[in-house]
Amino acid sequence: MRLLESELFQQDLSGVTALALPWEKLRGASFMISGATGMIGSTLIHVLMKKNREDGLGCHLLALGRNAQKGKSRFEEYWGDPLFTFIQCDIDDVENLKESLRVAGLKHVDYVFHAASNTHPVAYATDPIGTVVTNIIGLNNLLEFAAKAGARRFAFASSNEIYGENRGDVELFDEKYCGYIDCNTMRAGYPESKRAGEALCQAYIRQKGLDVVVPRFTRSFGPSMLMSDTKAISQFIRKGVEREDIVLKSAGTQNYSYTYVCDAVSGLLTVLLLGDCGEAYNIATRSCDITLKDLAALIAKEAGTKVVFEIPDQVEAAGYSRATKALLDSRKLEDLGWRARFDMETGLRHTVEILRSVQ
């Protein structure tokens, strides 16, 4: 069974499409999404295509990705739909991007969401250059296109990683917090390039008048996650789906914020449609704050298995975050009217149940 055939996943998507957002801003608009086959990008596409088909939104989705075969696998249900176009391109290569958009006949776009990025430890460790390049050069290429194409708004997918390590002076990170990052490490490429990416967005606002917002995602999870994802929660979930013991590769005292993917997408849409230009917004919920060991135990309980400890290999360990406590303050987003629908237990249960049904 395919993901979209899951009744539970459809219910979760409906929870987003039913939100009282100013959807009219997207009516008949063109919406470009980089990183379209990723967890958040693909779920956003599922939400908007559902809104198109059920409510006649008429929003034309332009999904950017490097691999057309992967794109077709993800979006087979939309492949012949006139409101969906997959554009195979490399956003880091400006000439390839320009040629791909020219072949697609694309000169104007209303909204752009840049979600392409390496987002997990093995990717950081094996492709550190690509991690930095996509978050800065790829971003610049899309910002430049958006400015020339007269885009109404650009959204840059930033990360909780930009806060660095907790200095021990706050319980929650608000959008102004700035913790420590050792920039002279391979692992620093991800948070530092996200910081630089946010600064680049501010430059385009000031110099070219582009309207940009910055949703800052925390550690997200859900049934649209990629099976290649090596984040701890993704590995835990895969084990839980297979009813295997959950492997914990540390003492598990790290305390992080998480977000179920449909809440992450509803937060993104809230920022896109209601946020102020130039502002960053944390997308997180206190109901999904949890230590790594408690997270492992929760999934093991759901799977009917146990937690076991294992030493990570050198490559994987090199990509791990050093942050031990990273809890996000979501009040700024909540002031826009956003509320999370899923606590950690419910989000994990839905994720495991849906993934088991689509195996």
From TrEMBL:
Domain spans labelled NAD-dependent epimerase/dehydratase: 32-284
SUPFAM superfamilies the UniProt entry points to: NAD(P)-binding Rossmann-fold domains
InterPro entries in the record: Epimerase_deHydtase, NAD(P)-bd_dom_sf, UXS-like
CC terms in the record's Gene Ontology section: cytoplasm
Gene3D superfamilies recorded: NAD(P)-binding Rossmann-like Domain
Single annotated GO MF: NAD+ binding
Cofactor(s) annotated in UniProt: NAD(+)
UniProt KW keywords: Decarboxylase, Lyase, NAD
Origin superkingdom: Bacteria
GO biological process: D-xylose metabolic process
Entry-linked PANTHER family: UDP-GLUCURONIC ACID DECARBOXYLASE 1, UDP-GLUCURONIC ACID DECARBOXYLASE-RELATED
This protein's name: NAD-dependent epimerase/dehydratase family protein
Organism of this sequence: Porcincola intestinalis
Lineage of the organism: Bacteria, Bacillati, Bacillota, Clostridia, Lachnospirales
